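ARCHIVE CARD
CATEGORY: sequence design from structure
SOURCE FIELD: tokenized fold
FIELD CONTENT:
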């Protein structure tokens, strides 16, 4: 027994050398968690919750299965980005199971009339708004990643810019046209940074290219600019929050499961790959570093 206490004490002492604790805010009944950050990066995990309170009835319409391990994946990305960039991204996590709330849908489908679920939905998007506003105030831009998991047969990371496979199959001239850019979650970088839309979708410094360079097959990317189907193009959260006029851009990331989000070691490898990709992406496409300093004018 005595030796056990010594081990516990040593564990506590080792913990003292870790980074100082960060703020964690919660909404009502801790259904929604918000960790404010210091970087121009906001990560949300709407479908990784496991809580099933008895006083919220099960949703009767829409998808009710969770995206397994995506909460843990989002947390791993936060830690990997902190290690790579020296500051924490903002993190918003929905702890409610998807059978109780689908935070990536409009309110009526998300909460299906339940008052507690509706309140959590408002808090989830309120925290994302708050995080994006702070990132824009601190850095001039916010990059939002809504983290999901898919079970499609093709094991590729699906990058949802609000464009479906048919949209992405159009030729470059059409993809670069204002009509398509208007729909895209990457609009800010086209309009404010002057980068052709095609370059952002599947050029050599697109997120798909950078992730593939780090060993994770992705689409759209230079190797697969047009996704096969089924393909998730991005949902309510990206549509609602990625507004160029508000300084917000980003995407929905759909992570496959085997060797990416199945184990802690897999998640760690992907988190490090994404952090490295984002460091390059921010400099090339957003004109700022993924760091705590103010964006250059
Ligand atoms: Zn999802």
């Amino acid at each position: 027994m005595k030796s056990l206490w010594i081990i516990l004490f040593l564990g506590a002492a080792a913990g003292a050398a870790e980074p100082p604790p960060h703020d964690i805010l919660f909404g009502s009944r801790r259904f929604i968690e918000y960790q404010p950050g210091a970087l121009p990066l906001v990560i949300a995990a709407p479908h990784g919750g496991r809580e099933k309170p008895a006083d919220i009835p099960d949703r009767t319409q829409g998808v009710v299965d969770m995206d397994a391990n995506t909460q843990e994946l989002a947390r791993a990305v936060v830690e990997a980005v902190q290690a790579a960039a020296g500051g924490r991204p903002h993190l918003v996590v929905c702890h409610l199971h998807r059978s109780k709330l689908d935070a990536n849908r409009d309110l009526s489908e998300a909460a299906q009339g339940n008052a507690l679920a509706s309140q959590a939905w408002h808090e989830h998007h309120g925290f994302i708004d708050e995080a994006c506003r702070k990132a824009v105030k601190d850095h001039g831009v916010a990059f939002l990643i809504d983290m999901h998991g898919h079970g499609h047969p093709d094991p590729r990371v699906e990058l949802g810019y609000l464009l479906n496979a048919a949209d992405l199959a159009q030729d470059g001239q059409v993809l670069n046209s204002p009509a398509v850019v208007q729909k895209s979650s990457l609009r800010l970088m086209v309009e404010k940074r002057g980068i052709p839309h095609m370059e952002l979708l599947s050029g050599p410094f697109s997120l798909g290219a950078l992730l593939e360079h780090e060993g994770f097959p992705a689409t759209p990317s230079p190797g697969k600019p047009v996704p096969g189907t089924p393909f998730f193009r991005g949902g309510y959260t990206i549509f609602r929050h990625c507004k160029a006029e508000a300084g917000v851009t980003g995407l929905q990331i759909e992570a496959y499961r085997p060797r990416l989000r199945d184990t802690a070691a897999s998640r760690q490898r992907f988190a490090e790959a994404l952090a490295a990709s984002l460091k390059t992406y921010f400099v090339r496409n957003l004109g700022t570093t993924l760091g705590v300093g103010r964006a250059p004018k």
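CARD ANNOTATION: Strands lie at 25-26, 32-35, 41-45, 90-94, 142-149, 157-160, 218-219, 248-255. Residues 102 and 110 are 4 Å apart (CA to CA).
SHELF: design records, drawer C
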